[in-house]
Design a protein that fits this description.
2 domains; mainly alpha; about 75% helix; about 250 residues
Length: about 250
């Protein structure tokens, strides 16, 4: 795409701004800020990635992945501020997902050991893990607040913290995973995924594009399940004290 074509594509930015102004939605400023930030951030990342790809240094790869995890953790922790130690819980979860997926990919030679593959796939895994963490924390906190009396009743009858919080935990995990599972049911029928579309536009064979997209879909399933389950079981324990009393929300 030429710079001129990119400039013309700003028409797609003007449309939501005009609609917001027409219907008094008040989103003009946020839209403009989002566009400016995305332009700056993506160009900066583009030049940084070019440098990292050219250098092929393992140190730069670790730094890039580390920055992704830190940024995702800081963004997701806002939704779980009520849970003690949520920052390190999210960080540990994202790191585990990253190590697990890359160990399988590189260990079985599914993808090459190069920055060109490691960084983009890591970005997809960390970004997806961040979204799932936010979905889980939103639902888990809402479920815990709504069922607080039920939780305390189970504890008063001799139940363990795990038994008392089981329903809220499982409900939140399932609700967080459903979007990932449902979107994969209609993949290729309702939409062509980003990686597949990008490879086709770049001139790759559609069959090869499908193979890489399937790899990403399988990775996303692992990221969804591991993120929700691990974050859930790390989170609920700090909601109770050593006497098995619910202290969260007090």
């Amino acid at each position: 795409m030429s710079p001129i074509a990119l400039i013309f594509s700003l028409i797609f930015v003007l449309i939501p701004i005009v609609l917001s102004k027409t219907f008094n939605l008040g989103l003009e400023k946020d839209t403009a800020i989002a566009v400016v930030r995305s332009i700056i951030q993506l160009f900066v990342v583009g030049y940084v990635l070019k440098f990292v790809f050219d250098s092929e240094s393992i140190i730069y790869i670790f730094l890039m992945v580390g920055v992704m995890i830190v940024a995702a953790t800081l963004n997701a922790r806002k939704k779980g501020a009520a849970i003690k130690g949520i920052t390190w819980k999210i960080a540990v979860t994202l790191i585990f997902v990253e190590v697990l997926t890359q160990s399988i990919l590189l260990g079985f030679n599914i993808t090459p050991h190069t920055a060109q593959y490691i960084i983009p796939i890591s970005g997809m895994m960390v970004g997806n893990g961040m979204v799932l963490a936010i979905l889980f924390l939103n639902r888990f906190i809402a479920e815990t607040e709504a069922r607080q009396d039920q939780t305390e009743l189970i504890l008063s009858l001799g139940g363990t913290p795990k038994q008392a919080i089981h329903t809220q935990l499982i409900t939140s995990i399932k609700a967080s995973m459903i979007p990932t599972i449902e979107s994969q049911k209609t993949i290729g029928l309702v939409q062509l995924p980003g990686m597949m579309s990008g490879q086709i536009i770049a001139g790759a064979s559609p069959v090869q594009a499908v193979q890489f997209q399937l790899l990403v879909l399988f990775l996303l399933l692992t990221a969804a399940s591991v993120t929700c389950v691990m974050l859930g079981f790390l989170s609920y324990r700090t909601m109770f004290n050593q006497r098995m009393q619910l202290v969260w929300g007090r």
